[in-house]
Amino acid sequence: MTETPHSAAGGAPTLRRGSLGTADIAFFVVSAAAPLTVMAGVAPLALLIGGVGAPVGYLAAGVTLAVFAVGFTTMSRHVRNAGGFYAYITQGLGRPAGFGAALLALLGYLGMNIGVFGLLGSATRDTVRALTGHDVPWLLPALIGLLVIWYGGFRSIDFGAKLLGVLLLAETGILVLLAAAVLIEGGAHGLSAHSFAPGNVLTGGMPGVLAMAFAAFTGFESTVIYRREARDPDRTVPRATYLAVAFLGVFYAFVVWTVIQAYGDTEVVAAAAQDPGGLFFTAIDRYVGAWAADLMHVLIVTSILASLLAFHNATSRYGLALAEEGLLPRALGRIHPRHRSPYVSGIAQSVLALVVVAVFAAAGADPYTQLLLWVNTPGMLALVALQLLAALAVPCWFRRRPGHGEGALRTVVAPAAAAVLLTGALWLVVDHIELLTGASATVNLVLILIVPAVLAAGVLYALRTRTRRPEVYARFGAEPAESPDVPVPSAV
C-alpha cells in the first residue's frame, strides 16, 4: 500500500512505515554496541582478567543471547505492540510487572544513552591530545555531541539508518584492517588456537570476562522497537536480531583473538597490563602503520557518536510508546509531520541529558569514571534484568494461547534455558560490578539497588493506576488497534 503522511484516524502524523529493512535495523543494534569502542577500550581489561581465553567469553555471551532471541523473536511474530520488552512482559507476566518493566526500560535506555556523553567527552579529549598535543575540556565535545545527536534523532529514520551504516562500516573496517594485517603477517610468533584450549578457558578470571562480555551486547534487543517502521516486521525483526547477535559474538571473539596473535600468547597479557588503553593502537601501528593508529583514534569518536544516535533513537521510541500508553505525558507522543520522528520525546531526552551532563561537570566529576560508569551501570543492569523478565514472559504467554502454531522448542525450551543463562549472567555482572565501575563498595551497592528500586516503583505505580486511572491500566501493553496503513499479520 502506498504510504500516506497521516494516519487514517484523526489526521495525526505517524512514524514512517516500511522504511527499515533487515540491514537497517541491524545497523541500529550493532552501532549501539559500539564495536570499536568496546574492543579498544574494554577488551584489554578482559585480557587482563581472563588471559588468552578471553575470546571464548564473547562467544559464550553471544550463544546465550542467541538462545534468548529464539523465544523473543517468536513472540515478536504474535505481539505487534512496539513497546518491546515492557509489552512482552505485560502480556506474559501481567500489568504490574509490565509497569515495572516500562520504568526499567526507561532507566536502561536513558542510562546507556546519557552516560556515554561522558565517554564522548573523554575520548574526544584523548584523540585531540594524541593527534595535536593540545588539550580540550571534555565538556565542549560532550555539548557538541548533544546537539549532533539531537539533530540526528530529529531527522527521519532513513537519515539515521544511512548515517549509522556509514559510521558502522568505518569502525568495523578499521578492526578488520588490523585483523587482516595480523593474519597476513602470521602474528608475532605464528597463529595459534591456544585461546580455545580448555585450560585457558576454564580459569578463575572467566566469570569476570563473561560479565564484561554481556555488557558489550547491551541494546541488541531494540530490534522490536522499530517494528512500526520495518518492512515486513514478522520477518525483518527476527532476522535483524539474529544477525546482530551473531555478528557481535563472532566479531568480538575474532578481533580479540587476532590481537592476542599480534602480541603472542605469552606476551599479550603483559602488554595489556603495561598500556591497556594503547593495546590496539600499538598493534595497528606495528602491523598497518601510524596513519591507521591516527585514524583509529578518530573512529573511536565516531563509534561513540554512532552508539549515542542508536540509543537516542531507541529511547525516543520507547518514550513515544509509553506516551501513547498514558504512562508518560501525552506531548511526548507527538510525531514530526515532515520527518515522521518522535521529535518531542527526542527533545525531552536531550534536555535531560544536558541537565545530567551539566550537573556532573559543575561537580567536577570525571567524565569517564563517574559520568559514564555511574550512569551507564544501572542502565546496563536494567536491560539485562529486562531480558530475564522477557525470557520468563514468553512461555507464560504461549501457555495461555493454545493453537498458536509454534513448537515447544521455541516457546518453552529455549526461553527456559535463556532464563537460566540470563540469571547466571545477571549474577555475574552484579558479583563482578567493581570490574565495570572501578568504584567503591558503597557506590556499587547504590548503583545495583537502583534497579530493583525502579522495578518496585513501577509495580506500585501500576497498583495506584489500577485504582485511579483504570482506563490507562486496562489498555497498558495491549495490542495496537488495526488501521489501514498498518499491515496486519496473518492469523496464526
Structural features, described:
The longest helix is centred in the middle third of the chain and has 36 residues, at 290-325. The chain has one domain (22-475): Amino acid/polyamine transporter I. The chain is globular. The chain is 72% helix and 0% strand. Helix 1 (22-33) packs across helix 8, helix 3 (54-76) packs across helix 16 (367-399) and helix 4 runs parallel beside helix 16. The protein has helices spanning 22-33, 35-50, 54-76, 85-93, 95-114, 116-132, 139-154, 157-185, 198-201, 206-216, 233-263, 268-274, 279-287, 290-325, 343-362, 367-399, 408-431, 433-437, 441-468, 470-475. The protein has 20 helices and no strands.
Keywords:
membrane, APC_superfamily, AA/rel_permease1, 20 helices, cell membrane, mainly alpha, 492 residues
What is this structure's SSE topology?
Blueprint: H1 22-33, H2 35-50, H3 54-76, H4 85-93, H5 95-114, H6 116-132, H7 139-154, H8 157-185, H9 198-201, H10 206-216, H11 233-263, H12 268-274, H13 279-287, H14 290-325, H15 343-362, H16 367-399, H17 408-431, H18 433-437, H19 441-468, H20 470-475
